[in-house]
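Appendix C reproduces, verbatim, an entry submitted by the partner laboratory led by Prof. M.T., so that reviewers can inspect both the input and the predicted structure.
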Amino acid sequence: MKLLHSALLAATLPLAIIAPVAPAYQANAQEAAQADEAVQHDHIRTRLYGTAGPVVVLIPGMSTPAAAWDDTVASLVDDHRVLTVEVRGFAGERGTANESAGAIDGIVADISADLAARNLGSATIVGHSLGGLIAMKFGLAHAEQAKSLVILDSLPFFGMVFAPDMTLEKVEPQAKQMRDMMIAGAEQMRAAGLANTTSGAGAAGMSIDEATRVRIANWSLDAEPLAVAELVYEDTMTDLRSEIASLKMPVTVVHMANGGYREMAIERYTTDYAALPGVRLVPVDNSLHFVQLDQPEIVRAEIRAAAAK
């Protein structure tokens, strides 16, 4: 099990901690489809794609911009309304509310307010990594707005990647250490983001594809370290393993189960989601942490199925 813990830790920690800086490279993401004007809240920025069909909300993972969903949006927009969430700071913006305590709860509240203001009704909430935790928090706080949840490679307690007997009390020193290290190294991390990288070496555990690892590494290097530091701390200090028993909507969890990690991953996810009756666990081979990029057809099929319920 230690091998799986190490893989999940490398796959989930912000790359600003672990990614080396290589020669400059800048990837330019293109719009996936025609969208309305961005709507900005204290913690998030949203865009709505499409004009008809079930509503799908896409929440990115740690240090990941909304552009990570471009291909997913393009595949859904013809017959869905797709709301992309960008966590402010994850695209490089400084001085946002996500640099202060209460960032996760603020993101959840902003998503709820955005759905209400747009009069979109109940939606399928999709979240990757940190976004998966946010999706679960959203389902617990705003059940009337969440018809279903699709969780992508996310545990209800991130602290489990450190040790199989981890508790909030035990993990707090490590959570503080990660946060403080990123705050202390913020200027160096921003400089690394300006340089960017042509290597995917720092994104090992993120994707099976080298070009995709380069994209992921650059997304992470571009993220504002102070926002990442706060959200890493809050993510690590959130344990929903018991609380998820209160989720009443259908929940699908799609997770990597690659090669030799398959049985260990299945055991980890089965154990950590044990409190949630009826959860649909979907192990995905030939994939690492970014399952929506490594095996997009599987993920999109699960999103479509959840949105159709």
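The chain has one domain: 2-307. Additional entries are available on request from the coordinating office.
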